[in-house]
Amino acid sequence: MKKITSNKEKHYLAVTLSGENDKEVLTQMASALQEEGYVKDSFPEAILKREEVYPTGLPVGEISVAIPHTDPEHVNDAAICLGILDKPVTFNVMGMEGETTDVSILFMLSIKHKEDQMDMLQKLITVCQNQDTLKEIMAQDMDKINEVMTTLVEG
Question: Which CATH number is 95's domain given?
Answer without folding.
Answer: 3.40.930.10
